[in-house]
Amino acid sequence: MDKKGRSNSSVMLGEQAVNRGAGGETHQTADAGYDTLTTQQGTPVSDDQNTLRQGARGPALMEDAHFREKIFHFDHERIPERVVHARGYGAHGFFETYEPLTDLTRADIFQRAGEKTPVFVRFSTVAGNKGSADLARDVRGFAVKFYTKEGNWDLVGNNIPVFFIQDAINFPDLVHSVKQEPDRDFPQAQSAHDNFWDFVSLMPESMHMIMWVMSDRAIPRSFRFMEGFGVHTFRLVNAEGQSTFVKFHWKPKLGMQSVVWNEAVKINGADPDFHRRDLWNAIQSGDYPEWELGLQTFDQEFADSFDFDILDATKLIPEDVLPVTPVGRLVLDRMPENFFAETEQVAFMTQNVVPGIDFSNDPLLQGRNFSYLDTQIKRLGGPNFAHLPINAPKCPFHHFQQDGHMAFTNPKGRANYEPNSWGTEIGGPREAPMQGFQTIAQEAEGPKVRLRAESFADHYSQARQFYRSQTSVEQKHIGAALVFELSNCETLAIRERVVSHLLNIDTDLAQTVATGLGLGALPKAAPPAAKPKMDLKPSDALSILKNGPKQFKGRKLGILITDGVDTGLLKAVETAATEAGATVERIAPTVGGVKASDGTHLPAHRKIDGGPSVLFDAVAILVSEAGVAALLKLPPARDFVADAYAHYKFCGFTQTAMPLFAKAGLPKELDKGFVKLAQPADAKGFVQACAALRFWDRPDGA
Ligand code: HDD
């Protein structure tokens, strides 16, 4: 005991053993039935609250091995974040094969109907740092590790089917340009700055991707509502060694959905973890997100007849030209037990393919196959990252790789080389010529050159096709995004250079952007690429809105309530929404909840300040006359309504909400996106209307 009666060790308090901190606060100890706290060496720790010191008020002692171990470990807790895709969120699940694909591939995963293969999936943004906000305008990574019975297959894709560049040698420059500018270290998680637009405007091959990134694809509502793509052309190889080209697609079962830009900006403030929370909540509540894997397969003849080079990652093959065939489903049903051990340490590598899947000569893919191994060695500290449980295959594996940092599964026995003559008992593994991975024997010849094929030269036709495939709402968003981004570029010449490319894509778009930027006159169009620009047929599959899900399932309704709320009406709305497969949150002036019309106490999920309407897909305003009077004095309540209106959301309301609508500046004549809830029977109709997700026919939306 010290002079103040504090203890440095456990004391008995009644029946319970406790440990005391400096402030005299108590901590329950192992003596009370907890596991014993130990050092990393397994030595039991008696006191984790006080460093060893010379006398109660004296200097700390070097001898305190437990303190030193704890602090040293803490000092080393961070590992280098991924140079791109630093911010990510992962989940476990399975892939289920629909039908055997034996004619196309010998990949074990596609041999048996109903085969379930464990997977780990990591979604990510690209440019932002690890702590950046989820709703940045950015490409989303969609990386899937299949733990197949013949090794790990990593399909390291994005939510956009094309890429900025054609050759991996440009990747460091692309990434440098989009990340923070090096002298000032900002802006992070944003492409809206000079360096990025300077680079892409000097790389016309990026223009197709730019159309996608300026579209709402780059601000998805959640990971659950976005598509995924393997991007490159790969090969499937069957048991006879015949190969078929393939492009991989992921289609979300709940349909695609994005937010609008003004909403994205506000979500980033209200909940920077919006996408993480969404995935976590969905999986924890048993509402498992699901995607279908689809294949576009084609032969050399198709490749030769296609308008573009199938090795060019800035091009896609429209679904109308080559349909996507579903071959299986991906279900995410389990969150990692520990974020760092699994999501942070997972190492995806494009070169992880299995027998039956092979690469094409896409120069971007070929470069990636080099980069990913290198990055994992750097990031995870050595060559043994495959020993980490998240990266280890789940099938038997035997090899002679040994030693290095953290080698904890070195091969056993004497033989650590082959060939050897030690026999099957101790001689270790051998090659399997028939079963093993075999690279497709493709002829290759020609001079060693640094040359881009002529067939890669048309940079505008598919950009134009993408733009012209969008609904007018989506086209408006692309124009607005370009104006926003370029308005954040300080250099006039860069703004003009981008518009000069847009003139090769669509003159109306170029004009819209030029006007939005206040350019005095249109610049000259960028020199056309070597190949002439083609007018391709628009493809509906490229639009999000033309493929609307028409369901409210998996979405979220926010209900703003006050004291005096009609309990029957509230319950009816909540029931209708949950029956439609949506989740519901109540928002109230205080998180403690409200006193309903029938005197019952109804708890709330959020206080109005922390529950803005941007967090919901649709809203309902169920308020009493007295309640609305109180809301009028709360700016967040006005924002709740004004934002829901500006973001084209469906809004159910009681007549009593009208003063709040007036205060929020809504028009007197409400549009059909506003559904009056006069009685409980109206709830179903409101929720049915919400299935359209947004009421786009609102002229003064954001
Ligand atoms: Fe990459 C990470 C997707 C081009 C080099 N990339 C990374 C991740 C995804 C992609 C989803 C995150 C994986 C995870 O969650 O851990 N990358 C793509 C796609 C590309 C692409 C779809 C084009 C079609 N990448 C690309 C090129 C290079 C890289 C051309 C280099 C030559 N990518 C990397 C990397 C990363 C990475 C540096 C950073 C962290 C990591 O690998 O594990 O190696």
Automatic annotation (TrEMBL):
Cofactor(s) required for function per UniProt: heme
GO molecular function, one term: catalase activity
Region of interest called Disordered, as start-end residue ranges on this chain: 1-30
Family to which this protein belongs: Belongs to the catalase family. HPII subfamily.
All copies of domain Catalase core, residue ranges: 38-426
PROSITE patterns associated with the record: CATALASE_1 (PS00437), CATALASE_2 (PS00438), CATALASE_3 (PS51402)
Assigned keywords, A-Z: Heme, Hydrogen peroxide, Iron, Metal-binding, Oxidoreductase, Peroxidase
PANTHER family assigned: CATALASE, CATALASE-B
Catalytic activity: 2 H2O2 = O2 + 2 H2O
Protein name, entry field: Catalase
Enzyme Commission identifier(s): 1.11.1.6
SUPFAM superfamilies tied to this protein: Class I glutamine amidotransferase-like, Heme-dependent catalase-like
Pfam families named among the record's database cross-references: Catalase, Catalase-rel, Catalase_C
Function, in words: Decomposes hydrogen peroxide into water and oxygen; serves to protect cells from the toxic effects of hydrogen peroxide.
